[in-house]
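Example record

One chain of 159 residues, shown exactly as stored in the release files.
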Amino acid sequence: MKPVRVLILGTGGMANAHAEAYVSMPGVSLVAGIDTNAERLSAFNTKHGIGHGFASVADALAWGQFDAVSNVTPDPVHFPTTLPMLAAGKHVLCEKPLATNHHHAAEMAAAAAKAGVVNMVNLTYRNGPALMHAAAMVADGAIGPVRHFEASYLQSWLT
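Predicted structure tokens for this chain:
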């Protein structure tokens, strides 16, 4: 299988976590970054060993040498930056939320379906310290056999 070439759109704080995750994945190659802030883009690309940088989605699409996009732009920018990527046949993973309203999210889903690509958001607590500790306790047999499990994650801005 050929490597998946990933472009990171938006190089602010969370983009570093995305880059570090992609670098750790076999079969994934970080090939480019996009940011309107040239200084931040340059520093990000240098830090992560990324060879190409672009100031706009249009410039990156003109280059075209990527398969998928990790969209780490501010929330209101997900919709206008994701649609051209989908139309160009690029898979897109958006940082949460996918869009700022249902209409935009539905339009993004329809555009992905039309292009035959994936447009998704990943919101998971799988690697959260508390859950990792609980999983280790189960794996080590520290709490005995698990017969039932139910959990709620209550966070002030979610409740």
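Notes: The first strand starts at residue 4 and ends at 9.
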